[in-house]
Amino acid sequence: MSLLSIFRRKTFARGVHPASNKSTAGTPLRRLPFAPRMILPLAQHIGKPAVPIVAVGQEVVRGQLIARAEGFLSVPIHAPVDGVVEAIELRPSARGPWTESIVIRTYEASTQEVRWGTPRDMDALSAQEIIQAVQDSGMVGLGGAAFPSHAKLTVPKGRKIHTLVVNGCECEPYLTCDHRVMLERTDDLMLGIRYAMRAVGAEKAVIGIEDNKPDAVEAVRAALPADGSIAVAAVETKYPQGAEKMLIKSALGLEVPAGGLPSEVGVVVNNVGTLALLGRLLPLGQGLTERAVTLTGPGIKRPGDYWVPIGTPLRHVLEWAGAEDVSEREIILGGPMMGQAIASLDVPITKGVSGILVFDRRAVKAESDRSSYACIKCGECVQACPMGLNPSMLGLLAGSSEYELMGSRYHLGDCFECGCCTYVCPSNIPLVQQFRAAKSVLRQRAEIAKAKIEIHESGERFDFGHAEGEERKTGGRRHPVPETKG
Amino acid sequence: MDTVLGVTMAGGFMAALGAALAWLLAVASKRLHVYEDPRIEEVESLLPKSNCGACGTAGCRNFAEELVAGHTEPARCTVNSSDMNEYIASVLGVDMGDVEKRVARLACAGGRHVARMRAHYAGLGSCRAATTVAGGGKACDWGCLGLGDCESVCDFNAISMNQYGLPVVDPSKCTACGDCVEICPKGLFSLEPVSRKLWVACKNHADGDTAALQCEVSCTACGKCVADAAPGLMRLNNNLAAIDYSKNALATSDVIARCPTGAIVWMDSGRATRGVAAKKIVRISALPVASEV
Lengths: 486, 293
Known about the structure:
The complex is a heterodimer of chains A (486) and B (293). Chain A is of the alpha/beta class.
């Protein structure tokens, strides 16, 4: 067994191999200067939006709490700059809907140093207190999902966690911010892993890093503690290795049941960027005010990895990185596989943005203008789907609007929209796009069914459409929620 | 002789077995009989069998059961003609009921000749899919994307897309089944009784200046309609005019007269009339894409 495992490459079944294009891996992380105006949406995370505790006209200090968490599945927001609150109003967000945001006008003398926060002795804290400290720091999964970290570290009742899996795969092409963080903030990362292990009660931790980053593997290995509780697993470079269920399979050989959470097999997964920042912020008692973001793509003159203050408008970042004719570019927030194409340059960089990719529109146009053809039943998508679904069948059903069947018989709910099926399809069928649309219909139906039941119980007749006078304040629509991935 | 006996016995045995089983079935059919009102079958045959769900039940059979049970009234079927509903009422010996005709109405007038796009959308041609990509690229995040999900979902061909990329509802074909209400990712459709003639054809909640930049026919929340309307009929809610339909009787076409953009309209038999002060729009070509708005 041990002899055989030497030859077994750590990986998962299926998946794809897109060109990595990680040209920015060699440049150190740099700082981005403050923008004259910062925009902080109250809903940057999954869960309930934060509630502002500052008033228009109030002065704020970098690191100061400006919006508190509303309930358990919510995180607070901290001021990224010294400045004055200019407005609390609707602003466009990267996903589309206008959302309530706090706008701060930056003082010119605002420093990069964070003076807010009360240092604390982390060793004296219990698991519950660590989780509370994580929530107070406003931390969310920085891999892209923006799921509140404290909720992830809270183990469901009756489950026991044996291993903390640390996600350093960064399987998305182009992105290198986690890579740089592993090289430059190795000690913070080790501290963060310790805190997370104590929070979930895990005895072991495994750091999964794709084997195209040998320098990161070396750097992290050199910093491992002597007691052997933390190990590094070099996993195969393959997309989507950084999806949490894939990484658990690769690093530990465990399979999470369909529709289940990693805690069902005794595992919790966290991103390296998240843990490295937790390792720095928790002892200082500070909040999340900046994150590492990869700025790259053919349309950028000074590509590289930057510490970007949360709330910096995209236009400011692009100006600083030397992007020209921005209106003639195709811009994606996140990675090229699962990222979000944006429609406005006035959207802010939020907690969940791991990369900004700027492509030449003409180069992209050739791809997007390719027509799509009928399914030839080649099975490429079935060979690519890491979740073992049948995208070809799902695509046919989506074409005839059989959404219920997709959800019940073909496990659409297990699709995490990695896009492998669309990537390999020789007929260029927009499969993952159809699945996203189908999921949004199913989600809405479930909400209506729930409302119907509630109304039925209250004895009134259900009526379609919106109640009189009920106006959507923030757009109210929900959007597909991607899973954590690195 | 033995052969004859054998054949007779076999035949007799089979006949006896048949008789016994027939008796069993006869008893079972009497004992286990479930009475079903024959009128359900009859009423179902009079229903349109479109199973659209507009009546609020799971389908035509379900509606027939509810009708016979007296839980609902024939007029709830919006697909049948009123003559047919009257006939059903006479068959059942009940009152036809009085249900006001409702039609699907779109709360947006921002066709591509008046509403700006801030980015090109080049993906799958469906409003649902477009909404998942940064809201679809329209400057107004609340507005109609014009990719026609409603047109394709309508079973009655009541919706057609016009030259500006806006869905137009034919009130004579619309049965108020609610399919377009469900499919529209921006939630722009609602089923409105035809007596509601005053209508705000906009959902833009951005402040007035931004809204005016985004779309020439948006509500800029200037408040003129609120000033001109009977007290309590109109109000401003988050930068958007809203109508209190419980005071619908007070609505007159004077309310729309001073609307500068024509966002508030007077609907009569499917046609929207804009106020006299509304800016005249002569452009028919699409506005260029502008990333600044």
